[in-house]
Design brief:
41 strands, about 55% strand, Maltoporin, Chain A, single chain, 22-stranded antiparallel beta barrel, mainly beta, about 750 residues, globular, 5-stranded mixed sheet
């Protein structure tokens, strides 16, 4: 019997196209006819040879009090800057709707992204704190967006004001400028509307978890409304000493709803006071086998973050053919971090004891090993101003129909990072304490430690991008998407101590994107696409010395895929084969010398499902196979597996309404083994985590129970490449109870 590789199996699956549709159609038809016998069937005109699923009744959800509780998205603006049907975007897109997050009782941005195949979590590294995301093997820390604008602050994002999280895979500099090697992640905020509502949610859980959210929407006139979302929380954890206290508010007002001219003003104000967690050090090539609750730090560590974002959008529709938009966003992010990480593992309790390295292999017992605690203190300030003006035209030239978007992006960003060295007398520089590897005592920082300000990095950048994209329809079945963008990105950095003392660079880059979409019927779509992107040395406004004169890294992506709307449109199934390559990755030749001779490649297969199997049964999930390889490097990592890039990932969430009031659900998250760094010295094992839920729905309220990690599986969540490779343990079994009440 022949054994197919994941890629070969994917090719067979993509090729086996319409024949599967009738097989899936029958269960929904039977269930829908039983539950909705009184409703007329929705008729459609099928193409020749199309499955006879167009005559099925429309799939609806019974027994739900909120019409928005649907797992199946239809539109996204992340792939085209304007709302576009997912089937018309020639790239893989995953939209995680609010309904999925509510069903899972998820509130953090990182937890929400567990629903997205190909996303892995990084963690605090150097000056990087907050959400650190890898997408298809490449860092996406500066590829997180808020309503289409770069949300580059280093903070822990919350979902309280989000309608969805949209993920576009693959290099996409055409729309987003620098970055987007593995893709982009866009947070879509809730919008004011003309339907009054007032919702309150109260949540309590084990390990002292408490959270409250409020969502109020109020029309002011027939064409205007305001909306306010707010949250407050105090969260404990199954990890020792992990306490978070956060709150935020997001007001928004919209004028001209339903008229040719709409004006939207919004803000996001958020405050976080969290306990930083730098995880567990490695030992013998794996995370040290200590209790997962073990915390290496001090009880008075903290990360204090403040976020203020203001957004103004004006949109004018001249007629059905032409629309112009202008949007401006001002953002300020500040971070005061007093953090500690487990640095070197030592063979004794003295500062002069031998430090292990290269995976920390040793035959000594755990009780003989110690850990050096190092300060990671810094004050960070980020400012940014973004402005986008675009013009959309829908018109025809002969038998060709055009949907064209022309625009200009302007940006100004500043960044400062004041770092500190904290040392306790009698210990080596930047060492606060030396503690046992097993059962370290939890105390405040030593009272006699000394802190000295070290390097102050100050940087700024100005950018301009001009872009044009056109979707040309050739009849009803074929679309060609093509676009080009020109960027000028000028950035500079000044270091008070570190080298370089001062550096500046100006990069010019032209990005392209093209794709062909074939839609033989209304329920199936096939595409091929190609896209590029670039990564300047000063992309994140930080710089490693001797990289200031290197040109931008270049990325390119090839993708082929299919998007099906089965079961009378009730269930979306997407598949794609992809190849992403960074053709001139920076690689270190020797100490302090870098060249663009590297080559990094990730290729793989992705499958996604979202929607209804029956009118009572919903699913949302995906699978991805990733083969990430360092193809070429001069630092000894050539041929290694790309860091934090597991070969296999599965996520699945499913719910079923057994009665009009009772709903049950759950599902697994699976991540195969991965390496903490490109040197492949530290390997973290794979895991499967199971979550479950039960909910009782009424017109005015819902009562919901969730259990995260019901089997209490020990696993490692986020990986940190430094100091050999640290790993942050995931949350243990946690029970949550939620009351959602609708006042109107």
């Amino acid at each position: 019997m022949l054994r197919k590789t994941p890629l070969a199996a994917a090719l067979v699956t993509i090729a086996a196209v319409p024949m599967a549709a009738p097989l899936y159609a029958q269960p929904v038809a039977q269930d829908a006819q039983t539950a909705q016998a009184a409703q007329p069937a929705t008729q459609a005109t099928p193409a020749d040879g199309a499955p006879d699923i167009a005559t099925l009744p429309a799939v609806t959800v019974t027994g739900r009090s909120d019409a928005a509780a649907d797992f199946q998205p239809e539109m996204s603006s992340v792939g085209a800057k304007v709302p576009t049907a997912l089937r018309d975007i020639p790239q893989a897109v995953v939209v995680v709707p609010k309904a999925v997050l509510q069903s899972q009782a998820v509130s953090s941005f990182s937890d929400a992204l567990r629903n997205v195949p190909g996303v892995t979590l990084g963690a605090a590294e150097g000056g990087q704190i907050g959400n650190n995301i890898n997408l298809r093997g490449f860092t996406a820390r500066t590829d997180i967006y808020l309503d289409g604008f770069r949300d580059r602050g280093q903070y822990y994002r919350d979902t309280f004001n989000l309608e969805s999280i949209d993920v576009l895979y693959g290099p996409s500099s055409l729309y987003f400028g620098r970055g987007s090697t593995g893709g982009v992640i866009n947070q879509v905020s809730k919008q004011p509307n003309l339907k009054p509502r007032a919702d309150v949610s109260l949540q309590a859980g084990t390990h002292d978890r408490y959270r409250t959210t409020v969502d109020i929407n109020q029309p002011m006139t027939d064409t205007s409304a305001f909306r306010i979302n707010a949250f407050g929380q105090s969260l404990g954890s199954t990890r020792d000493e992990m306490k978070n206290k956060d709150y935020g508010i997001a007001p928004e007002v919209k004028f001209g709803i339903g008229t040719p001219t709409q004006i939207t003003l919004s803000a996001l104000i958020q405050h976080n006071r969290d306990q930083p967690d730098y995880g567990i050090p490695p030992l013998n090539g794996h995370p040290a086998p200590v209790d997962r609750k073990t915390f290496y730090g001090f009880t008075d560590d903290r990360t204090i973050q403040d976020v203020q974002t203001l957004n103004a959008r004006v949109e004018h529709r001249f007629n059905d053919m032409f629309t112009v938009r202008n949007q401006t966003q001002f953002s300020h992010y500040s971070t005061e971090a007093r953090a500690t990480n487990a640095a070197a593992v030592l063979t004794g309790p003295l500062g002069t004891s031998t430090a292990l390295s290269n995976g920390n292999y040793t035959t000594l017992p755990l009780s003989s090993l110690y850990v050096r605690l190092q300060g990671k203190d810094r004050n960070i300030n980020d400012h940014s101003v973004y402005n986008t003006t675009d013009f959309q035209g829908k018109f025809a030239t002969g038998f060709l129909k055009h949907d064209m978007l022309v625009g200009v992006d302007l940006s100004h960003e500043t960044y400062s990072n004041q770092s500190f060295t904290a040392t306790t007398p009698g210990l080596p520089t930047n060492t606060l304490a030396i503690v046992p590897l097993v059962d370290p005592a939890y105390t405040t920082r030593p009272s006699n430690y000394r802190e000295v300000a070290t390097n102050l990095a100050e940087s700024s950048a100005n950018g301009i991008g001009l872009y044009l994209n056109d979707t040309i329809s050739l009849g009803d079945q074929w679309k060609w998407i093509g676009g080009v963008r020109w960027d000028r990105y000028e950035a500079s950095i000044h270091n008070s101590i570190n080298a370089p003392g001062y550096a500046t660079q100006t990069n010019y880059f032209t990005s392209v994107r093209t794709g062909i979409v074939w839609q033989p019927t209304e329920w199936q779509s096939y595409y091929v696409s190609y896209g590029t992107s670039f990564n300047p040395s000063l992309e994140a406004l930080t710089l490693t010395n001797n990289q200031q004169n290197t040109p931008p890294e270049k990325n390119r992506s090839y993708e082929i895929g299919s998007k099906w709307d089965l079961l009378n449109g009730g269930l979306s199934v997407t598949q794609s084969l992809f190849n992403i390559e960074k053709t001139n990755a920076r690689t270190q030749v020797s100490t302090g010398e870098y060249t663009l001779d590297g080559d990094v490649r990730v290729r793989g297969y992705q499958l996604g499902v979202a929607g209804h199997i029956t009118n009572k049964w919903q699913v949302f999930g995906g699978y991805t196979y990733m083969d990430g390889t360092v193809e070429k490097a001069l630092d000894g990592t050539a041929g290694n597996t790309l860091a934090n890039t597991p070969h296999n990932m599965v996520t699945l969430w499913s719910t079923y309404n057994f009665t009009p009031n009772w709903e049950f659900g759950g599902g697994p998250s699976y991540v195969s083994s991965r390496y903490a760094a490109n040197n492949n010295l530290v390997k973290v094992g794979g895991y499967t985590r199971w979550d479950v839920m039960a909910a009782y729905h009424q017109k005015r309220y819902d009562i919901q129970f969730n259990v995260w990690n019901i089997t209490d599986k020990k696993y490692y969540d986020a990986l940190i490449p430094s100091d050999g490779g640290r790993a942050v343990p995931g949350i243990g079994r946690t029970f949550l109870a939620t009351l959602n009440y609708r006042f109107r």
